[in-house]
Structure formats: C-alpha cells, structure tokens
Amino acid sequence: MSAIQTAQLMDGTGLAKRVVEEAAARAGEISRRAGTSPCLATVLVGEDPASVTYVRMKRARSAKAGIRSRQIGLPATTTTAELVDSLTALSDDPDVHGILLQHPCGPHIDERAAFEAIAPEKDVDGVTMRSFAAMSFGLPGFVSCTPGGIMRLLDAYDVDLAGKHAVVVGRSAILGKPAGMLLLAEDATVTYCHSRTADLPGIVREADVVVAAVGRPRLIRGEDIKPGAVVIDAGYNRGNVGDVDFDTAVTRARLITPVPGGVGPMTIAVLLAQTVEAAANQLGIPHR
Ligand code: NAP
Q1: What region holds the Tetrahydrofolate dehydrogenase/cyclohydrolase NAD(P)-binding domain (predicted)?
Q2: Which residues line ligand 1 (CB under 6 A)?
Q3: CA–CA distance, 283 with 20 (Å, rounded to integer)
C-alpha cells in the first residue's frame, strides 16, 4: 500500500505572529522616539454581532501590539453624509494614524462614498480607490489586508510566481481583484474567475497557484487541483470550512493553507503592520 502524498501546510498563524511581533517592536520604537504610540480608529455603524466581534478582536490585537485604538460606534440609522463627516474628521485628526471602517455598513450606506472619505495616508485597510490604483501601478500605498497577507504567505514559503499561471476565483474589490493585481506584479500570468465563468473546474485544472476567494463551501474540488499546485484558500464559511475541499486538495497540492489558521490570521497582522507604518510615516520616524 503506497502512502498518500500530502501537501505542506502554510502556517498563517505562525507567520502572523512574527509579523505582529515585528509591528509591536516598531510601535515601541515609535512611542519612544515620537512620544506617542500609533493609533487606529475603528468605525462601526450599527451593532451587527459579527461586525462587533471583528472590531473587538482587531482592537484587542492592536492593544497587544502597542497600538492605541479609538472606537467610533455610530447608530444603525447613521446616514452616508454623517458617516462621511465622521471619517473626514478622523482623516483630519493628527492623533489618528490609521482608519478602519468595518463593513458591510448596511444597505442604506453608500460604502464607496464612505471609503473615499478616508485619507489615503491613513487607509491602512487598503479600501480606497487611490490605494487600489497605487497598488496596481506599483506605487507606495497600503494594500488591501487579505491580499497583502496572501502575498506575505507566498513569499514566506518561497513560492516563485514568475511565469506561473495563477487562477483567482472571486473578484471582489477587497479580495479577489487586488489579489490578482499583486500576483500580476510578481509576474504571474493571472486569470480571474467569477460567478459567470464558464468551466471553472477546467480553468482551475490549469493553475499552478489557486487563490480561492468566493465564500462557497468546498466549491473548488481536490480532483481539479493540478498535482504540485499551491493552493491559497481565503474563503471562510460556517463551520470553519474554506472554499476548497481541503481533504482531497491536500493529497494533490504542494502547499496549501488550512482553514482556519491560513489566510485568516494574516489579515489582522497586515492591518496592524500597516497601521504602524502609517504612524511612522506621519510622525516622521524613518527606519533606523
Ligand atoms: P464577495 O464580495 O461575496 O465576492 C465573492 C466573489 O466570488 C464574487 O466575485 C463572485 O462572483 C464570486 N463567486 C460567487 N459564486 C461563485 C461561483 N459559484 N463560482 C465562481 N465564483 C463565484 O466575497 P469576499 O468579500 O471577496 O469574500 C470571499 C470569501 O473570503 C468569503 O468566504 C469571506 O468570508 C472570505 N474572506 C476572508 C477574509 C480573511 O480575513 N480570511 C477576509 C475577507 C473575506 P461575481 O463577482 O460574479 O458575483
């Protein structure tokens, strides 16, 4: 009986810990040199339980890394204009270095208008059009946190992307689309798939690198993973299930992210790292 091959797991929890430790050390240095610590403003509209939990988690992690947070809780009845005013005030406040608008904000809010009220230098969640454009042009700016975390994972596991066929399943503005642009910047040949894609399995079968960013449990079947491919599963579905059928994909991939413990922890780590970087830029603390 031959042993079943299994992929190496990409340990997002361990890498995220190292990224946060680095950010914490830099936050400490900023505090010593500037006399003030980095500050992240979190803005939450309404009291959606999942959003409340996410914000609480982000604030707790910030505190552990030596990042202050300022919580702005707005009632569910807040209008787009009021939210824009609040974000504009934070953008103008020199004591705030990064701004996170927890979304979705509710169907009555024009989220694009709200995001655009965040000053680019404080856009540590990488949600503004200017941040997206800078990332796409390879110019300085903050990247969307989950795609940024995916790229750090690929780098940590020495995945050479040049000339590889990367298939990104999902094209949301915060995840799929920017992930594809970052892969392109590393010279991968990128294919985007989405809900209207014809023959998704056929395209996945051609992929050297698969990034699943859909939100459909086990949509990507293991039998469609090319032997030796790298599989990044950003999906997170009820019951700790990703967008990839892990049990079968793990027998064909070379590297694969577990769910949980893969992409998830990297998102907050990148948020904290970018908040510290924003503070350093705004307070004029260059790297020694
Ligand atoms: P989203 O805005 O709902 O976008 C989903 C994308 O998947 C869309 O582009 C959609 O296509 C595509 N899609 C839907 N059904 C499909 C199908 N059957 N075949 C191919 N493509 C399909 O979701 P998102 O915000 O990008 O999040 C995606 C997943 O990542 C979710 O599970 C979410 O929980 C997870 N996530 C994780 C993190 C993290 O920190 N780990 C962060 C953010 C999101 P259309 O554009 O055609 O509709």
Answers
A1: 144-282
A2: 146, 169-172, 174-176, 193-197, 200, 213-216, 219, 234-237, 263-264, 267
A3: 20
Residue ranges of the domains in the chain? 35-120, 144-265
Q: Looking at domain 144-265, what is its CATH homologous superfamily?
A: NAD(P)-binding Rossmann-like Domain (3.40.50.720)
Integer Cα distance of 144 and 162 in angstroms: 22
Question: Sorting pLDDT into bands at 50, 70 and 90, what band is 2?
Answer: low
pLDDT for 3: 67
**In angstroms, rounded to a whole number, what is the distance separating the alpha carbons of residues 266 and 273?**
10
* For residues 86-96, average pLDDT: 98
Q: Is 102 a catalytic residue?
A: yes
What confidence score (pLDDT) does residue 1 get? 52
**For domain 35-120, which architecture applies?**
3-Layer(aba) Sandwich (3.40)
Residue 235 known to bind ligand = no
To the question of whether residue 170 is assigned a binding role by annotation, the answer is yes
Residues in Cβ contact with 31 at an 8 Å cutoff, skipping those fewer than 6 apart: 37, 66
- Residue ID of nearest Cα to ligand 1 atom 6: 170
